[in-house]
Amino acid sequence: MTDIAPLRHFVSGVSELLMTVPNDDAEVSPLVLQAITLQLKRLIEHDDWLPEPFTRPHPQRYRQYLLYADALQRFSVVSFVWGPGQTTPVHDHGVWGLIGMLRGAETSQRWTQGDTFSPVGDATHLLPGDIEWLLPQEGDIHQVSNAFDDRVSISIHVYGANIGAVKRNVFDETGQRKAFISGYDNRFIPNLWDLSDNVVHAQEETAHA
Amino acid sequence: MTDIAPLRHFVSGVSELLMTVPNDDAEVSPLVLQAITLQLKRLIEHDDWLPEPFTRPHPQRYRQYLLYADALQRFSVVSFVWGPGQTTPVHDHGVWGLIGMLRGAETSQRWTQGDTFSPVGDATHLLPGDIEWLLPQEGDIHQVSNAFDDRVSISIHVYGANIGAVKRNVFDETGQRKAFISGYDNRFIPNLWDLSDNVVHAQEETAHA
Ligand SMILES: [Fe+3]
Ligand SMILES: [Fe+3]
Ligand SMILES: [Mg+2]
Fold this sequence. Notes:
Bound molecules: fe (iii) ion, magnesium ion
CATH topology of chain A: Jelly Rolls
Oligomer: homodimer
GO molecular function, one term (chains A, B): oxidoreductase activity, acting on single donors with incorporation of molecular oxygen, incorporation of two atoms of oxygen
Family (chains A, B): Belongs to the cysteine dioxygenase family.
Helix content of chain A: 10-25%
Keywords (chains A, B): Dioxygenase, Iron, Metal-binding, Oxidoreductase
Radius of gyration of chain A: 18 Å
Binding site for Fe cation (chains A, B): 91, 93, 142
Strand order of the largest sheet of chain A: 1-2-10-4-8
InterPro entries (chains A, B): CDO_1, RmlC-like_jellyroll, RmlC_Cupin_sf
């Protein structure tokens, strides 16, 4: 069984950071984002904590498993799982986002919007330990793909909202936008808060009950 | 499938209340506790939101399923499930607690500690919708039992800490105390944060995958 402690430490750390941000501040400062990035870096440094149910690919579509959402919906942590060759539509986010590569590799291609809807710059290639920022004010339209056509890739995303409930956009090849709300693919999220020694025994009982 | 919205509203409401409490205040004021009590009252008014995995009794022992814990461990929400005739040891809590009866009925017997270790007053009988307070400063040693010997009873508890990680005490018949940490019986907690329309479809896919 994986030890969920690194995710607990990340969630506690970000929550403590947000205690220092005024409640009415919709925007998080670059300094706070830097601090969250450092904590995310530590979280994805080792690939030994993500419970198996949140690593499962779907045969057709990429999966987005909520791992944690702040009760005031100020941030969320999501496990994105790409099966071989899977890709997202071109989409935006509307809030800040950090993508931390945990397992495998992915490419992220930015798109501009304006008179011409087109890819901008080279695709970013993310390897385990790498982090990419997405900021609405810098343009946050992109398309993400599994870099592998023969294995699963997983990245851990952190967003400045309950991302599964954010009304945002997907874009077709002409740049035509369509509103969407992603939701999540899981009804249950990890219990981060059992710090007792006997948790394994009790859980085994439950699993066998 | 149950609709988890009432629990989401409760968790959000308590979290918003705690935003008004100074960070360094270990004690929550009676006014804040009153406000939490009102919200708990609303939560347990209808027994239609608790997902089935958190209602399952164990043949030998009562179960404590974490439903939610605050990231700063300022409060937690737990589903206590008693099988027919099951009972807790005599125990304390060390933090404030609210017990809201959801299904069935239970009795709570207070104990004093001092020169003589003995039951104090009559047992409280809780029916659905009823709420009992536990405050360390008033003495919070008690024993809780399912009032039924032929059916399951469930109550929703709210505590002023991550209760499963609090070092507290159980007492034997002579009043001898023994330290314990309860932990929780579940590795997964409900995902409260999917507000999208398509959640049922996505979840059904996952369930069948
Ligand atoms: Fe994205
Ligand atoms: Fe108790
Ligand atoms: Mg346990």
